[in-house]
Write a structure and sequence with these properties.
By secondary structure, the chain is mainly beta. It has helices at residues 2-6, 307-314, and strands at 28-29, 51-55, 61-67, 70-77, 85-89, 95-100, 103-108, 114-116, 123-132, 135-142, 145-152, 158-160, 166-174, 179-185, 194-199, 208-211, 223-224, 230-235, 245-250, 256-258, 266-272, 278-289, 293-304.
Length: 316
Amino acid sequence: MISRILVAIVAALASNLTFSGDIVLKPIDITKECGGGLITSAGFVRGESNQVYLRIDDGRIVQCILRDRHAQVVTEHSQEGRAMLMPAWSPDGQVIAYVHYGDIYLFRIDSRRSLRVTTTGHVVGPKLLWKNNMELFFTATSQFGRNINVVNLESLVVTALVSGRGYYSVQDYVNKSGHIYYAFSPTGASPHFDLFVANVNDSGLVGRRILTAKDILTEGTASVTADEQLLATSGSPGTSAQESYAFIKNMRNGRVIKIEHEKGWSDDYAEISRDGMWMIMLSTQSGIDPMRGIIRQQHIRLVQLTNDMANDMESE
């Protein structure tokens, strides 16, 4: 099978990833197809497997449909004078939650109006996550670092899920299991973030470590499939911290797929669809131009996963 030739799965230790052999999977570039421009916040592949939501530098939120390894823009949303950072679609598809100057707003698709939810200005990245149609997880700065919070959109009451010192950031949430994925560092000094999973109903988010700082460089990248079997993130285990690769890890047997990229580029953000059929990456290259000084290029890259690949990841 062609896909079996392309996919060379390498073994992973329980706490540390190891890559060997050739880079195993080549993505396609869909930057132009999704409207071009600098992508100033993450790309999303959530809900339906072929829906991609992106924020472009001029403030537009672009919804793309993925078909046959290509992307087609179907809708655009914007709010005059607002950056609409970290956009996240509600489960029912009626509302876009976003961040503007450190506060959460809700943009209703039907009325095209926004409602301010928080007022402290302390909301930070990497993302907003819907718990259900009436509750949102978010990360915010606090007196002792950064906390993970949940806000009720009816009462506007904000509840902290963790207390004490340290730097937490929310990564993903799976409604069926109630599992919340988060990054944590006692000091907040990147790249020293570990990745944990916990039951959202547990007091204080007493989580289980699933990736260490040796595996994951930044706290803004992790996502899982609906069955929590596959986890997508980016990091540079065993290589220079200046260059990171996107990868997919099978959480049951530790097998890893590494995504190809050009030398000098870093995959700063990776997101996998709930059904495990698509993976999207935000890739960045920084350099110095004699005329323009420091330049930064960002591209959206896409991988379509296959049933053969899933079978390979399951095999011993």
